[in-house]
Design a protein that fits this description.
Elements lengths: L13 H29 L7 H28 L14 H27 L7 H23 L8 H40 L21 H34 L21 H24 L4 H35 L10 H30 L10 H24 L7 H5 L3 E2 L7 E2 L11 H4 L2 E5 L4 E4 L7 H15 L5 H34 L4 H4 L2 H6 L1 H32 L1
Antiparallel strand pairs: 1-2, 3-4
Helix pairs in contact: 1-2, 1-5, 2-4, 2-5, 3-4, 3-6, 4-6, 5-6, 7-8, 7-14, 8-10, 8-14, 9-10, 9-17, 10-17, 14-17
Membrane topology: Multi-pass membrane protein
Family: Belongs to the otopetrin family.
Subcellular location: Cell membrane
Length: about 575
Protein backbone atom coordinates (compact mmCIF):
# COMPACT_ATOMS: atom_id res chain seq x y z
CA UNK A 1 0.00 0.00 0.00
CA UNK A 2 1.18 3.46 -0.91
CA UNK A 3 0.89 6.12 1.71
CA UNK A 4 1.21 9.77 0.85
CA UNK A 5 0.84 11.67 -2.37
CA UNK A 6 3.76 10.04 -4.17
CA UNK A 7 5.22 11.42 -7.34
CA UNK A 8 3.35 13.46 -9.88
CA UNK A 9 2.81 10.43 -12.01
CA UNK A 10 1.65 8.22 -9.20
CA UNK A 11 -1.90 8.10 -10.55
CA UNK A 12 -0.64 6.47 -13.72
CA UNK A 13 2.15 4.29 -12.28
CA UNK A 14 2.29 0.57 -12.95
CA UNK A 15 1.46 -0.57 -9.36
CA UNK A 16 -1.55 1.73 -9.26
CA UNK A 17 -2.76 0.55 -12.67
CA UNK A 18 -2.45 -3.05 -11.48
CA UNK A 19 -4.37 -2.14 -8.32
CA UNK A 20 -7.13 -0.65 -10.44
CA UNK A 21 -7.35 -3.77 -12.61
CA UNK A 22 -7.25 -6.13 -9.62
CA UNK A 23 -9.93 -4.20 -7.70
CA UNK A 24 -12.23 -4.04 -10.74
CA UNK A 25 -11.89 -7.81 -11.26
CA UNK A 26 -12.61 -8.37 -7.57
CA UNK A 27 -15.78 -6.28 -7.85
CA UNK A 28 -16.96 -8.05 -11.01
CA UNK A 29 -16.52 -11.49 -9.46
CA UNK A 30 -18.28 -10.32 -6.31
CA UNK A 31 -21.18 -9.13 -8.45
CA UNK A 32 -21.35 -12.24 -10.65
CA UNK A 33 -21.45 -14.55 -7.62
CA UNK A 34 -24.31 -12.55 -6.14
CA UNK A 35 -26.07 -12.36 -9.49
CA UNK A 36 -26.05 -16.14 -9.91
CA UNK A 37 -27.25 -16.59 -6.35
CA UNK A 38 -30.10 -14.15 -7.04
CA UNK A 39 -30.98 -15.97 -10.27
CA UNK A 40 -30.92 -19.36 -8.51
CA UNK A 41 -33.37 -18.10 -5.90
CA UNK A 42 -35.62 -16.59 -8.57
CA UNK A 43 -35.94 -19.87 -10.49
CA UNK A 44 -36.35 -21.96 -7.29
CA UNK A 45 -33.05 -23.81 -7.73
CA UNK A 46 -32.66 -26.89 -5.55
CA UNK A 47 -30.81 -26.16 -2.31
CA UNK A 48 -30.94 -22.35 -2.72
CA UNK A 49 -33.32 -20.37 -0.54
CA UNK A 50 -33.91 -16.70 0.09
CA UNK A 51 -31.98 -16.93 3.35
CA UNK A 52 -28.81 -17.84 1.41
CA UNK A 53 -29.17 -14.76 -0.80
CA UNK A 54 -29.89 -12.46 2.13
CA UNK A 55 -26.95 -13.88 4.10
CA UNK A 56 -24.64 -13.04 1.20
CA UNK A 57 -26.00 -9.49 0.94
CA UNK A 58 -25.78 -8.97 4.72
CA UNK A 59 -22.11 -10.07 4.65
CA UNK A 60 -21.32 -7.62 1.85
CA UNK A 61 -23.04 -4.76 3.67
CA UNK A 62 -21.19 -5.51 6.92
CA UNK A 63 -17.85 -5.48 5.10
CA UNK A 64 -18.72 -2.14 3.52
CA UNK A 65 -19.78 -0.76 6.90
CA UNK A 66 -16.41 -1.71 8.38
CA UNK A 67 -14.56 -0.04 5.52
CA UNK A 68 -16.64 3.16 5.73
CA UNK A 69 -16.11 3.37 9.50
CA UNK A 70 -12.35 2.96 8.99
CA UNK A 71 -12.31 5.64 6.28
CA UNK A 72 -14.38 8.07 8.37
CA UNK A 73 -12.21 7.55 11.46
CA UNK A 74 -9.03 8.12 9.42
CA UNK A 75 -10.56 11.23 7.87
CA UNK A 76 -11.36 12.63 11.32
CA UNK A 77 -7.77 12.19 12.48
CA UNK A 78 -6.46 13.88 9.32
CA UNK A 79 -9.11 16.56 8.99
CA UNK A 80 -6.52 19.36 9.12
CA UNK A 81 -4.83 18.10 5.95
CA UNK A 82 -5.72 19.91 2.73
CA UNK A 83 -7.23 17.41 0.31
CA UNK A 84 -7.91 17.64 -3.38
CA UNK A 85 -11.58 17.69 -4.32
CA UNK A 86 -13.36 16.90 -7.57
CA UNK A 87 -15.67 19.89 -7.89
CA UNK A 88 -17.72 18.12 -10.60
CA UNK A 89 -18.56 15.10 -8.40
CA UNK A 90 -21.23 14.88 -5.73
CA UNK A 91 -23.27 17.96 -6.61
CA UNK A 92 -25.50 19.26 -3.82
CA UNK A 93 -28.71 18.56 -5.73
CA UNK A 94 -27.53 14.98 -6.31
CA UNK A 95 -26.87 14.54 -2.60
CA UNK A 96 -30.31 15.94 -1.81
CA UNK A 97 -31.86 13.52 -4.29
CA UNK A 98 -30.12 10.47 -2.85
CA UNK A 99 -31.08 11.61 0.67
CA UNK A 100 -34.75 11.74 -0.33
CA UNK A 101 -34.57 8.23 -1.81
CA UNK A 102 -32.69 7.03 1.29
CA UNK A 103 -35.42 8.33 3.62
CA UNK A 104 -38.06 6.42 1.66
CA UNK A 105 -35.76 3.38 1.68
CA UNK A 106 -35.69 3.57 5.49
CA UNK A 107 -39.50 3.55 5.48
CA UNK A 108 -39.33 0.46 3.26
CA UNK A 109 -36.98 -1.21 5.76
CA UNK A 110 -39.37 -0.43 8.61
CA UNK A 111 -42.20 -2.04 6.61
CA UNK A 112 -40.04 -5.13 6.08
CA UNK A 113 -39.30 -5.32 9.80
CA UNK A 114 -43.03 -5.09 10.56
CA UNK A 115 -43.75 -7.73 7.91
CA UNK A 116 -41.17 -10.05 9.50
CA UNK A 117 -42.62 -9.56 12.98
CA UNK A 118 -46.10 -10.52 11.74
CA UNK A 119 -44.82 -13.63 9.93
CA UNK A 120 -41.96 -14.46 12.31
CA UNK A 121 -43.28 -17.98 12.90
CA UNK A 122 -42.42 -19.14 9.39
CA UNK A 123 -39.75 -16.74 8.11
CA UNK A 124 -36.02 -17.17 8.34
CA UNK A 125 -34.20 -14.94 10.89
CA UNK A 126 -32.18 -13.48 8.00
CA UNK A 127 -35.37 -11.78 6.75
CA UNK A 128 -35.46 -9.83 10.00
CA UNK A 129 -31.71 -9.17 10.16
CA UNK A 130 -31.52 -7.95 6.55
CA UNK A 131 -33.75 -4.81 6.87
CA UNK A 132 -32.03 -3.80 10.12
CA UNK A 133 -28.57 -4.14 8.54
CA UNK A 134 -29.79 -2.39 5.41
CA UNK A 135 -31.16 0.55 7.43
CA UNK A 136 -27.83 1.03 9.24
CA UNK A 137 -25.99 0.65 5.92
CA UNK A 138 -28.24 3.30 4.31
CA UNK A 139 -27.77 5.87 7.08
CA UNK A 140 -23.98 5.53 7.18
CA UNK A 141 -23.61 5.44 3.40
CA UNK A 142 -25.61 8.65 2.89
CA UNK A 143 -23.49 10.36 5.54
CA UNK A 144 -20.34 9.06 3.84
CA UNK A 145 -21.44 10.35 0.42
CA UNK A 146 -22.39 13.76 1.80
CA UNK A 147 -18.96 14.19 3.40
CA UNK A 148 -16.61 12.41 0.99
CA UNK A 149 -18.17 12.06 -2.49
CA UNK A 150 -15.80 14.76 -3.79
CA UNK A 151 -12.63 13.27 -2.27
CA UNK A 152 -9.60 12.51 -4.43
CA UNK A 153 -7.87 9.83 -2.38
CA UNK A 154 -4.06 10.01 -2.38
CA UNK A 155 -3.14 7.74 0.55
CA UNK A 156 -3.65 3.99 1.09
CA UNK A 157 -4.74 3.97 -2.56
CA UNK A 158 -4.62 0.21 -3.13
CA UNK A 159 -6.71 -0.55 -0.05
CA UNK A 160 -9.15 2.25 -0.84
CA UNK A 161 -9.65 0.97 -4.40
CA UNK A 162 -10.84 -2.39 -3.05
CA UNK A 163 -13.03 -0.72 -0.42
CA UNK A 164 -14.73 1.63 -2.87
CA UNK A 165 -15.24 -0.98 -5.61
CA UNK A 166 -16.67 -3.35 -2.98
CA UNK A 167 -19.18 -0.62 -2.11
CA UNK A 168 -20.03 -0.04 -5.79
CA UNK A 169 -20.91 -3.67 -6.47
CA UNK A 170 -22.64 -4.14 -3.11
CA UNK A 171 -25.05 -1.38 -4.12
CA UNK A 172 -25.43 -2.91 -7.58
CA UNK A 173 -26.37 -6.25 -6.04
CA UNK A 174 -28.85 -4.57 -3.69
CA UNK A 175 -30.27 -2.81 -6.75
CA UNK A 176 -30.52 -6.15 -8.58
CA UNK A 177 -32.28 -7.73 -5.61
CA UNK A 178 -34.78 -4.86 -5.48
CA UNK A 179 -35.40 -5.00 -9.22
CA UNK A 180 -36.00 -8.76 -9.14
CA UNK A 181 -38.34 -8.64 -6.16
CA UNK A 182 -40.36 -5.80 -7.67
CA UNK A 183 -40.41 -7.48 -11.12
CA UNK A 184 -41.74 -10.74 -9.70
CA UNK A 185 -44.57 -8.83 -8.05
CA UNK A 186 -45.37 -7.00 -11.30
CA UNK A 187 -45.23 -10.27 -13.24
CA UNK A 188 -47.79 -11.91 -11.00
CA UNK A 189 -50.19 -9.01 -11.54
CA UNK A 190 -49.48 -9.07 -15.27
CA UNK A 191 -50.37 -12.75 -15.61
CA UNK A 192 -53.74 -12.12 -13.99
CA UNK A 193 -54.45 -9.16 -16.32
CA UNK A 194 -53.77 -11.20 -19.48
CA UNK A 195 -56.85 -13.31 -18.85
CA UNK A 196 -59.09 -10.23 -19.01
CA UNK A 197 -57.58 -9.26 -22.37
CA UNK A 198 -58.56 -12.63 -23.82
CA UNK A 199 -55.14 -14.30 -23.96
CA UNK A 200 -56.35 -17.55 -22.48
CA UNK A 201 -53.82 -19.63 -24.38
CA UNK A 202 -51.01 -18.35 -22.13
CA UNK A 203 -50.37 -20.59 -19.15
CA UNK A 204 -50.89 -18.64 -15.95
CA UNK A 205 -48.68 -19.93 -13.14
CA UNK A 206 -48.10 -17.46 -10.34
CA UNK A 207 -44.53 -17.31 -9.03
CA UNK A 208 -45.28 -16.67 -5.39
CA UNK A 209 -42.81 -16.56 -2.49
CA UNK A 210 -45.48 -15.78 0.11
CA UNK A 211 -45.04 -17.15 3.65
CA UNK A 212 -46.71 -20.48 4.42
CA UNK A 213 -48.19 -19.40 7.75
CA UNK A 214 -50.94 -17.02 8.78
CA UNK A 215 -50.32 -13.42 9.72
CA UNK A 216 -50.78 -12.43 13.36
CA UNK A 217 -52.43 -9.10 12.38
CA UNK A 218 -54.22 -9.30 9.02
CA UNK A 219 -54.71 -5.55 8.49
CA UNK A 220 -51.09 -4.67 9.25
CA UNK A 221 -49.82 -7.50 7.07
CA UNK A 222 -51.85 -6.21 4.16
CA UNK A 223 -50.52 -2.67 4.64
CA UNK A 224 -46.92 -3.87 4.90
CA UNK A 225 -47.06 -6.27 1.94
CA UNK A 226 -48.75 -3.75 -0.39
CA UNK A 227 -46.72 -0.77 0.82
CA UNK A 228 -43.42 -2.54 0.25
CA UNK A 229 -43.98 -2.80 -3.51
CA UNK A 230 -44.98 0.84 -3.86
CA UNK A 231 -41.74 1.89 -2.13
CA UNK A 232 -39.40 -0.35 -4.13
CA UNK A 233 -38.97 2.12 -7.05
CA UNK A 234 -37.38 4.64 -4.67
CA UNK A 235 -35.14 1.97 -3.15
CA UNK A 236 -34.02 0.94 -6.64
CA UNK A 237 -33.14 4.53 -7.58
CA UNK A 238 -31.30 5.03 -4.28
CA UNK A 239 -28.93 2.12 -4.86
CA UNK A 240 -28.18 2.94 -8.48
CA UNK A 241 -27.44 6.57 -7.57
CA UNK A 242 -25.20 5.46 -4.71
CA UNK A 243 -23.28 3.07 -6.97
CA UNK A 244 -22.69 5.79 -9.58
CA UNK A 245 -21.41 8.28 -6.98
CA UNK A 246 -19.12 5.63 -5.49
CA UNK A 247 -17.87 4.68 -8.97
CA UNK A 248 -16.81 8.31 -9.59
CA UNK A 249 -15.01 8.23 -6.21
CA UNK A 250 -13.21 5.04 -7.32
CA UNK A 251 -12.16 6.60 -10.65
CA UNK A 252 -10.78 9.63 -8.79
CA UNK A 253 -8.41 7.63 -6.59
CA UNK A 254 -4.85 8.81 -7.24
CA UNK A 255 -6.00 11.32 -9.83
CA UNK A 256 -4.00 14.50 -10.26
CA UNK A 257 -6.30 17.47 -10.77
CA UNK A 258 -5.60 20.94 -12.08
CA UNK A 259 -6.51 23.58 -9.55
CA UNK A 260 -8.75 26.14 -11.17
CA UNK A 261 -11.71 28.19 -10.07
CA UNK A 262 -15.00 26.34 -10.30
CA UNK A 263 -17.96 28.60 -10.95
CA UNK A 264 -20.97 27.70 -8.87
CA UNK A 265 -24.16 27.35 -10.86
CA UNK A 266 -27.16 27.51 -8.52
CA UNK A 267 -30.60 26.62 -9.75
CA UNK A 268 -32.89 29.59 -10.31
CA UNK A 269 -36.59 29.62 -11.15
CA UNK A 270 -36.27 33.03 -12.80
CA UNK A 271 -36.75 32.89 -16.56
CA UNK A 272 -38.11 29.32 -16.82
CA UNK A 273 -41.78 29.99 -16.14
CA UNK A 274 -42.99 28.75 -19.54
CA UNK A 275 -41.03 25.50 -19.36
CA UNK A 276 -42.15 24.87 -15.78
CA UNK A 277 -45.82 25.49 -16.59
CA UNK A 278 -45.87 23.12 -19.56
CA UNK A 279 -43.81 20.57 -17.64
CA UNK A 280 -46.15 20.67 -14.65
CA UNK A 281 -49.13 20.19 -16.98
CA UNK A 282 -47.45 17.07 -18.38
CA UNK A 283 -46.60 15.84 -14.87
CA UNK A 284 -50.14 16.34 -13.57
CA UNK A 285 -51.75 14.69 -16.59
CA UNK A 286 -49.33 11.75 -16.37
CA UNK A 287 -50.19 11.11 -12.73
CA UNK A 288 -53.90 11.18 -13.64
CA UNK A 289 -53.32 8.75 -16.53
CA UNK A 290 -51.38 6.35 -14.29
CA UNK A 291 -54.12 6.36 -11.64
CA UNK A 292 -56.85 5.66 -14.22
CA UNK A 293 -54.69 3.01 -15.91
CA UNK A 294 -54.04 1.10 -12.69
CA UNK A 295 -57.74 1.23 -11.79
CA UNK A 296 -59.07 0.14 -15.21
CA UNK A 297 -56.46 -2.39 -16.37
CA UNK A 298 -57.53 -5.95 -15.65
CA UNK A 299 -61.17 -5.08 -14.79
CA UNK A 300 -62.55 -6.22 -18.14
CA UNK A 301 -61.39 -6.53 -21.73
CA UNK A 302 -63.04 -3.27 -22.81
CA UNK A 303 -61.69 -1.30 -19.84
CA UNK A 304 -58.21 -2.74 -20.34
CA UNK A 305 -58.20 -1.79 -24.02
CA UNK A 306 -59.41 1.73 -23.20
CA UNK A 307 -56.69 2.08 -20.56
CA UNK A 308 -53.99 1.02 -23.03
CA UNK A 309 -55.34 3.36 -25.75
CA UNK A 310 -55.44 6.25 -23.30
CA UNK A 311 -51.85 5.58 -22.21
CA UNK A 312 -50.51 5.37 -25.77
CA UNK A 313 -52.23 8.57 -26.94
CA UNK A 314 -50.95 10.54 -23.95
CA UNK A 315 -47.41 9.16 -24.32
CA UNK A 316 -47.37 9.90 -28.08
CA UNK A 317 -48.36 13.52 -27.44
CA UNK A 318 -45.73 14.00 -24.70
CA UNK A 319 -42.95 12.32 -26.69
CA UNK A 320 -43.76 14.45 -29.76
CA UNK A 321 -43.47 17.60 -27.63
CA UNK A 322 -40.16 16.40 -26.19
CA UNK A 323 -38.78 15.66 -29.67
CA UNK A 324 -39.76 19.14 -30.84
CA UNK A 325 -38.18 20.80 -27.80
CA UNK A 326 -34.97 18.81 -28.24
CA UNK A 327 -34.71 19.70 -31.94
CA UNK A 328 -35.18 23.41 -31.16
CA UNK A 329 -32.42 23.23 -28.54
CA UNK A 330 -30.03 21.51 -30.95
CA UNK A 331 -30.76 24.11 -33.64
CA UNK A 332 -29.89 26.87 -31.17
CA UNK A 333 -26.60 25.11 -30.43
CA UNK A 334 -25.85 24.93 -34.17
CA UNK A 335 -26.32 28.70 -34.43
CA UNK A 336 -23.87 29.32 -31.60
CA UNK A 337 -20.11 29.04 -31.82
CA UNK A 338 -18.85 27.79 -28.52
CA UNK A 339 -16.01 25.35 -27.91
CA UNK A 340 -16.46 22.07 -26.05
CA UNK A 341 -14.75 21.28 -22.76
CA UNK A 342 -12.71 18.12 -23.39
CA UNK A 343 -10.86 18.09 -20.07
CA UNK A 344 -10.72 14.86 -18.07
CA UNK A 345 -13.86 14.57 -15.95
CA UNK A 346 -14.91 11.10 -14.65
CA UNK A 347 -18.35 12.30 -13.49
CA UNK A 348 -19.22 13.83 -16.85
CA UNK A 349 -17.87 10.83 -18.76
CA UNK A 350 -19.97 8.47 -16.64
CA UNK A 351 -23.08 10.60 -17.18
CA UNK A 352 -22.71 10.36 -20.96
CA UNK A 353 -22.04 6.61 -20.89
CA UNK A 354 -25.03 5.95 -18.63
CA UNK A 355 -27.35 7.96 -20.87
CA UNK A 356 -26.47 5.93 -23.96
CA UNK A 357 -26.13 2.60 -22.14
CA UNK A 358 -29.43 2.75 -20.26
CA UNK A 359 -31.29 4.10 -23.31
CA UNK A 360 -30.50 0.78 -24.99
CA UNK A 361 -32.99 -0.90 -22.62
CA UNK A 362 -36.00 1.03 -23.92
CA UNK A 363 -34.68 0.84 -27.49
CA UNK A 364 -34.68 -2.95 -27.16
CA UNK A 365 -38.29 -2.95 -25.96
CA UNK A 366 -39.35 -0.52 -28.70
CA UNK A 367 -37.79 -2.56 -31.51
CA UNK A 368 -39.40 -5.68 -30.05
CA UNK A 369 -42.82 -4.00 -30.14
CA UNK A 370 -42.28 -2.75 -33.71
CA UNK A 371 -41.28 -6.22 -34.86
CA UNK A 372 -44.29 -7.77 -33.08
CA UNK A 373 -46.70 -5.35 -34.79
CA UNK A 374 -45.19 -6.12 -38.18
CA UNK A 375 -45.20 -9.91 -37.74
CA UNK A 376 -48.46 -10.43 -35.82
CA UNK A 377 -51.33 -11.99 -37.75
CA UNK A 378 -54.11 -10.37 -35.70
CA UNK A 379 -54.00 -6.71 -34.65
CA UNK A 380 -56.46 -5.49 -32.03
CA UNK A 381 -57.17 -1.79 -32.56
CA UNK A 382 -55.30 -0.57 -29.48
CA UNK A 383 -52.04 -2.29 -30.58
CA UNK A 384 -51.68 0.04 -33.59
CA UNK A 385 -51.05 2.95 -31.21
CA UNK A 386 -48.01 1.01 -30.03
CA UNK A 387 -46.27 1.59 -33.40
CA UNK A 388 -45.96 5.43 -33.29
CA UNK A 389 -45.30 5.20 -29.55
CA UNK A 390 -42.34 2.83 -30.03
CA UNK A 391 -40.91 4.87 -32.93
CA UNK A 392 -41.14 8.10 -30.90
CA UNK A 393 -39.43 6.48 -27.90
CA UNK A 394 -36.42 5.67 -30.09
CA UNK A 395 -36.28 9.12 -31.72
CA UNK A 396 -36.89 11.05 -28.50
CA UNK A 397 -34.06 9.36 -26.62
CA UNK A 398 -31.74 9.84 -29.59
CA UNK A 399 -32.43 13.60 -29.69
CA UNK A 400 -32.42 14.04 -25.92
CA UNK A 401 -29.09 12.24 -25.52
CA UNK A 402 -27.53 14.52 -28.13
CA UNK A 403 -28.86 17.60 -26.33
CA UNK A 404 -27.75 16.53 -22.84
CA UNK A 405 -24.30 15.27 -23.83
CA UNK A 406 -23.53 18.40 -25.83
CA UNK A 407 -24.85 20.60 -23.00
CA UNK A 408 -22.65 19.04 -20.32
CA UNK A 409 -19.61 19.28 -22.61
CA UNK A 410 -20.10 22.91 -23.62
CA UNK A 411 -17.87 25.43 -21.91
CA UNK A 412 -19.71 27.88 -19.71
CA UNK A 413 -20.10 31.27 -21.32
CA UNK A 414 -17.92 33.87 -19.66
CA UNK A 415 -19.62 37.19 -19.16
CA UNK A 416 -17.76 40.06 -20.80
CA UNK A 417 -16.13 42.42 -18.31
CA UNK A 418 -17.55 45.38 -20.25
CA UNK A 419 -21.05 44.02 -19.63
CA UNK A 420 -20.33 43.48 -15.95
CA UNK A 421 -18.99 47.02 -15.60
CA UNK A 422 -21.67 48.77 -17.62
CA UNK A 423 -24.27 49.06 -14.89
CA UNK A 424 -25.57 52.58 -14.48
CA UNK A 425 -24.32 55.66 -16.32
CA UNK A 426 -25.54 58.92 -14.92
CA UNK A 427 -24.95 62.15 -16.83
CA UNK A 428 -25.64 65.32 -14.88
CA UNK A 429 -25.90 68.62 -16.73
CA UNK A 430 -23.15 70.99 -15.67
CA UNK A 431 -21.20 68.34 -13.70
CA UNK A 432 -18.68 65.67 -14.43
CA UNK A 433 -19.69 62.25 -15.76
CA UNK A 434 -20.31 59.97 -12.79
CA UNK A 435 -20.20 56.19 -12.87
CA UNK A 436 -22.11 53.99 -10.42
CA UNK A 437 -20.16 51.17 -8.72
CA UNK A 438 -19.91 48.17 -11.00
CA UNK A 439 -19.65 44.43 -10.46
CA UNK A 440 -15.86 44.72 -10.28
CA UNK A 441 -16.06 48.14 -8.60
CA UNK A 442 -13.93 49.92 -11.19
CA UNK A 443 -13.20 48.55 -14.67
CA UNK A 444 -9.59 49.77 -14.82
CA UNK A 445 -8.77 48.98 -11.20
CA UNK A 446 -8.52 50.95 -8.01
CA UNK A 447 -5.41 52.86 -9.16
CA UNK A 448 -7.55 55.15 -11.31
CA UNK A 449 -9.11 56.62 -8.22
CA UNK A 450 -5.79 57.68 -6.80
CA UNK A 451 -4.88 59.60 -9.98
CA UNK A 452 -8.03 61.64 -9.76
CA UNK A 453 -9.56 60.05 -12.85
CA UNK A 454 -12.95 58.54 -13.27
CA UNK A 455 -12.19 55.27 -15.09
CA UNK A 456 -12.88 54.93 -18.79
CA UNK A 457 -15.77 52.72 -19.88
CA UNK A 458 -15.94 50.51 -22.95
CA UNK A 459 -12.59 51.10 -24.61
CA UNK A 460 -12.50 54.74 -23.59
CA UNK A 461 -15.69 55.77 -25.32
CA UNK A 462 -17.11 57.37 -22.21
CA UNK A 463 -14.47 59.06 -20.13
CA UNK A 464 -14.62 61.66 -17.39
CA UNK A 465 -11.76 63.58 -15.85
CA UNK A 466 -11.91 65.79 -12.79
CA UNK A 467 -11.78 69.48 -13.64
CA UNK A 468 -8.91 70.92 -11.57
CA UNK A 469 -8.74 74.18 -13.54
CA UNK A 470 -11.74 76.45 -13.77
CA UNK A 471 -13.29 76.07 -17.24
CA UNK A 472 -16.37 77.40 -18.96
CA UNK A 473 -19.57 75.58 -18.19
CA UNK A 474 -20.66 75.64 -21.82
CA UNK A 475 -17.40 74.07 -23.03
CA UNK A 476 -17.62 71.38 -20.37
CA UNK A 477 -21.22 70.60 -21.28
CA UNK A 478 -20.46 70.40 -24.97
CA UNK A 479 -17.60 67.98 -24.35
CA UNK A 480 -19.86 65.74 -22.30
CA UNK A 481 -22.58 65.76 -24.96
CA UNK A 482 -20.00 64.93 -27.61
CA UNK A 483 -18.69 62.07 -25.49
CA UNK A 484 -22.15 60.65 -24.96
CA UNK A 485 -23.00 60.81 -28.67
CA UNK A 486 -19.72 59.14 -29.53
CA UNK A 487 -20.43 56.37 -27.04
CA UNK A 488 -23.78 55.49 -28.59
CA UNK A 489 -22.11 53.18 -31.07
CA UNK A 490 -20.39 51.33 -28.26
CA UNK A 491 -23.74 50.43 -26.71
CA UNK A 492 -24.53 48.44 -29.84
CA UNK A 493 -23.06 45.31 -28.28
CA UNK A 494 -26.19 45.21 -26.13
CA UNK A 495 -28.17 44.00 -29.14
CA UNK A 496 -25.91 40.97 -29.50
CA UNK A 497 -26.07 40.38 -25.77
CA UNK A 498 -29.88 40.55 -25.92
CA UNK A 499 -29.96 37.83 -28.60
CA UNK A 500 -27.66 35.66 -26.49
CA UNK A 501 -29.86 36.13 -23.43
CA UNK A 502 -32.94 35.16 -25.43
CA UNK A 503 -31.24 31.98 -26.61
CA UNK A 504 -30.21 31.14 -23.05
CA UNK A 505 -33.76 31.75 -21.84
CA UNK A 506 -35.16 29.41 -24.48
CA UNK A 507 -32.59 26.73 -23.62
CA UNK A 508 -33.34 27.02 -19.88
CA UNK A 509 -37.07 26.65 -20.54
CA UNK A 510 -36.45 23.61 -22.75
CA UNK A 511 -34.23 22.03 -20.09
CA UNK A 512 -36.86 22.70 -17.40
CA UNK A 513 -39.63 21.27 -19.59
CA UNK A 514 -37.64 18.13 -20.45
CA UNK A 515 -36.68 17.72 -16.77
CA UNK A 516 -40.33 17.54 -15.71
CA UNK A 517 -41.25 15.38 -18.71
CA UNK A 518 -38.60 12.82 -17.78
CA UNK A 519 -39.87 12.76 -14.21
CA UNK A 520 -43.36 12.25 -15.64
CA UNK A 521 -42.25 9.34 -17.86
CA UNK A 522 -40.40 7.75 -14.91
CA UNK A 523 -43.64 7.45 -12.92
CA UNK A 524 -45.65 4.99 -15.12
CA UNK A 525 -43.15 2.08 -15.34
CA UNK A 526 -41.88 2.64 -11.80
CA UNK A 527 -45.39 2.21 -10.35
CA UNK A 528 -46.68 -0.63 -12.49
CA UNK A 529 -48.05 1.09 -15.60
CA UNK A 530 -46.25 -1.05 -18.17
CA UNK A 531 -48.01 -1.57 -21.52
CA UNK A 532 -45.09 -3.77 -22.65
CA UNK A 533 -46.51 -6.30 -20.19
CA UNK A 534 -50.18 -5.66 -20.70
CA UNK A 535 -50.94 -5.37 -24.43
CA UNK A 536 -50.22 -9.09 -24.97
CA UNK A 537 -49.13 -8.79 -28.63
CA UNK A 538 -45.43 -9.32 -27.99
CA UNK A 539 -46.11 -12.44 -25.90
CA UNK A 540 -47.94 -14.02 -28.86
CA UNK A 541 -45.15 -13.26 -31.36
CA UNK A 542 -42.09 -14.00 -29.24
CA UNK A 543 -43.61 -16.37 -26.71
CA UNK A 544 -44.59 -15.55 -23.16
CA UNK A 545 -41.41 -16.50 -21.29
CA UNK A 546 -38.86 -15.09 -23.82
CA UNK A 547 -40.61 -11.71 -23.96
CA UNK A 548 -41.01 -11.51 -20.18
CA UNK A 549 -37.27 -12.18 -19.79
CA UNK A 550 -36.53 -9.36 -22.26
CA UNK A 551 -38.88 -6.97 -20.43
CA UNK A 552 -37.49 -7.85 -16.99
CA UNK A 553 -33.92 -7.26 -18.21
CA UNK A 554 -34.60 -4.05 -20.16
CA UNK A 555 -37.22 -2.32 -17.99
CA UNK A 556 -34.90 -1.46 -15.04
CA UNK A 557 -32.52 0.32 -17.43
CA UNK A 558 -35.43 2.15 -19.05
CA UNK A 559 -36.67 3.33 -15.64
CA UNK A 560 -33.19 4.42 -14.56
CA UNK A 561 -32.71 6.29 -17.85
CA UNK A 562 -35.59 8.62 -17.06
CA UNK A 563 -34.36 9.45 -13.57
CA UNK A 564 -30.76 9.89 -14.74
CA UNK A 565 -31.93 12.11 -17.63
CA UNK A 566 -33.91 14.25 -15.19
CA UNK A 567 -30.80 14.65 -13.01
CA UNK A 568 -28.65 15.54 -16.03
CA UNK A 569 -31.22 18.06 -17.30
CA UNK A 570 -31.31 19.69 -13.87
CA UNK A 571 -27.55 20.17 -14.18
CA UNK A 572 -27.97 21.52 -17.73
CA UNK A 573 -30.52 24.05 -16.47
CA UNK A 574 -28.12 25.25 -13.77
CA UNK A 575 -25.24 25.45 -16.25
CA UNK A 576 -27.08 27.24 -19.06
Amino acid sequence: MEKGGGSAAAGGSCPQKNAEILSSQYGINLFLAGLLLTFAWAVHAVGISKSHLLSYLITLMLIQLLWMLWYLSRSCTQRRLIRDKDTHAGARWLKCGITLFAVITLILDSFKIGYYIDFSNCLSPTEGIFPVTHAVHTILQVYFLWCHAKDIIQSFKTLERFGVIHSVFTNLLLWTNGVLTESKHQLNEHKERLITLGFGNITIVLDDHAPLCNCTTTTLCSIFSQGIYYLYPFNIEYHILASTMLYVLWKNIGRKVEHHQQHKTPFKFHGITVGMIFGLIVLTSTIAIVVVYLIQIGRSKIKSELALTMFYLHAIFVLALMCTAGIVALLIYRLEERSLDNSKNPARKLDAELLVGTAAGSWLLSWGSILAIICAQAHPKYTWYNLPYSVLVIIEKYIQNLFIIESIHREQEKVNDDIKTLRIVTISRGSTLSLAPSYKEIYNGRAARGSGEVPCLVKGSICGRENHAGGGAKEETSQENSSVMHSASDFSFYSGNSVTNNKRRVLKNIAAFLFLCNLSLWIPPAFGCRPEYDNGLEEIVFGFEPWIIVVNLAMPFSIFYRMHSAASLFEVNCKT
